[in-house]
Every structure is written in C-alpha cells, then in structure tokens.
Write a structure and sequence with these properties.
globular, 5% strand, mainly alpha, two-stranded antiparallel ribbon, single chain
C-alpha cells in the first residue's frame, strides 16, 4: 500500500513538473494557475488508466508500436485534460507534438530523479 501511495505521489509531482515545463517552453501551450491542480490530477488519472490499455492494444495489434505507447498515452492524456479542464490549452499541431514529447520526456526524467530526492531517508535506511 505504501509503495502504491509513493508511486502516486511521484507520478503527481512528475506530471506537475512536466506540465509546467511544457507550458513554460511552448508559447502556444498555456496552463492557468487556478486550474493547475485540477489539470494535473486529470492528466495523471488519464495517463495511469490509458497507458496499460494502449500497451495491451499495441502488444496484440501492432507490436512495433510498443516503444511509442508512452508517447501515445501522453498525447491522449493531454487531449483529455485539455477537453475536460479549462486550465490547459494547446493550439497548433506542432505545439501538440512538441508538448507531447516535452511532457513525456520531463515526466520520465522526474520519475527517475524524484524518488531519490523525496525518499532519500527511506532509501538510506534500507541500505
């Protein structure tokens, strides 16, 4: 249970950082401060739900796409978040593509680094 909670906390923080970086880097991507938390929660929930589904479909229907399933999941999560939340707005095909890549890349990096920072004491105690 604690591992699930820790994973959820890391995912929320990583996605928050990724969305902030995407909005900061891309001029056609905006994220309002008021709806930021709602957008992060929606994005994270959609990403967690849709990622296993897309992986499963790609494994059975198109094994070549397994490597890009995380990017597709990120794109779907961005689309759903933009549709549901007023806090995230992305305009232009190029911005959608760049937003997908940036949010995915920053999220991956943050998910690798954050556990080392957040759970430093726990990891040290295990050693």
């Amino acid at each position: 249970m604690m591992r699930l909670l820790a994973t959820a906390v890391v995912a929320l923080i990583a996605n928050a950082i990724a969305l902030l970086v995407g909005a900061w880097v891309l001029t056609d991507m905006s994220l309002t401060p008021v709806a930021f938390l709602i957008a992060v929660v929606i994005f994270t929930v959609v990403a967690v739900v849709i990622d296993p589904l897309i992986r499963q479909v790609s494994m059975t229907k198109a094994p070549v796409l397994i490597g890009s399933s995380a990017l597709v999941s990120t794109l779907v999560a961005l689309i759903v978040t933009a549709l549901i939340s007023d806090g995230l707005q992305i305009s232009g095909i190029g911005t959608w593509i760049l937003a997908t890549v940036i949010v995915w890349a920053v999220s991956v990096i943050a998910r690798l680094v954050l556990p080392l920072v957040i759970f430093r004491k726990t990891l040290a105690a295990r050693k």
